[in-house]
Amino acid sequence: MENYSGQQVLRIFPTDEDQVNLVRALEDLEHLQIDFWTSPTKVLLPIDIRVSFRNLQSVKVYLESNNIQYSIMIHDVQSLLDEEQNEMRRNRA
Amino acid sequence: TENARSTDSFNYATYHTFDEINAFIDNLVNENPNLVSKIQIGSSYEGRPLNVLKFSTGPNRPAFWIDTGIHSREWVTQASGIWFAKKIATDYGKDASLTNTLNNIDILLEIVTNPDGYVYTHKSDRMWRKTRSPNSGSLCVGTDPNRNWDAGFGGPGSSSNPCTETYRGRAAHSEPEVKAIVDFVKSHGNIKGFVSIHSYSQMLLFPYGYTTARTPDHNELNTVSRNAVNALASLYGTSYTYGSIIATIYQASGGTIDWTYNQGIKYSYSFELRDTGRYGFALPANQIIPTAEETWLALTKLIEHTRDNLY
């Protein structure tokens, strides 16, 4: 299985159209391998992105340097998925 | 052991594998032979069956279609689909409205709409969204089956890059999972309502997604959607927004319900189930049943309106 250790999901809160476009620009940076769980759409609608551990700092610096507010929605994706797997195993048992 | 269980002892509060879901489907059919049948409408790219449950009490009826799991990682949708199936089978003959519905129209339910992707989420990559068909000239696999429909295909809100999550595919209906539904809808010819279920941003949407043009039925769809989300909220207070796809979330070309609407299925909707802001696609299993319960209330409103306003 793909391992998501250290990966986080960030919830981004763009406050104007420029910030929406700045987040949208992340989609084109393929090397960052960002998985958009919800897409950049409108001002005030949150955007959720899953970011690999390797690129986490780069993405956070990008957001902070552009004064784009965000919070950490999921601190470690793998821990959630581990819990999900454990529960499935428990139920089968 | 799960495969051998009856649908009464099936655990609806956990996530299940593709094989377990298929065993559930077979058990439900065997337990309700006069109400439920299984139709295989095609096969996925990797050869898995595309199974549709048909709830019917008579021949040649109009139908209401529900599909779940077209994006494979949205596990709460497949799990909700299982719950809906059991609910329909259990409530027929007991719940007056559902009994009235099934005495007049059929309900069609495809629980695992993207089986290759779903199996892949269990075996290799929990966050896989697309189909698993290869793309010639690219190492990246899969097409977004919700951008592969012949409704503004190739327009804004879909991608031509096979390595993106919204890759539209080489042509409209190039994905067998999509083509199977297209062929079934066309051959059936009497589907009056269509709901495609996704997760996780708590929305009830209707056409269009590929154009800013309003459908001629916009006001009616808006009213029905409002009633549906109000019904949904009545159980646990879960707040949904509603509206046309393009006005509510974003421009999305090649989407499922734009195609069904353009085929003449007036009552076409798309759900985005729970949750906002905590778990995303990794919604804990203890939220499956509450999600399914509240969604069923909204679905009931959509089905009833279709039943009472056949066209």
What can be said about this structure in brief?
The complex is a heterodimer of chains A (93) and B (311). In chain A, 43% of the residues lie in helices and 20% in strands. By secondary structure, chain A is α+β, with helices and mostly antiparallel strands.
Commentary on this structure:
The complex is a heterodimer of chains A (93) and B (311). Chain A contains 3 helices and 4 strands. Chain A has helices at residues 17-27, 53-65, 77-92, and strands spanning 8-13, 35-36, 47-51, 69-74. With 311 residues, chain B is of the alpha/beta class. The termini of chain B are far apart. Chain B is 36% helix and 16% strand. In chain B, strands 1-2-4-3-5-8-6-7 form an 8-stranded mixed β-sheet, with helices on both faces. The A-B interface holds A 1-2, 4, 9, 11, 27, 30, 35-39, 41, 45-46, 48, 50, 73-74, 77, 80-81, 83-84, 87-88, 91-92 and B 1-2, 11, 13-15, 123-127, 163-165, 200-201, 249-250, 276-282, 284-285.
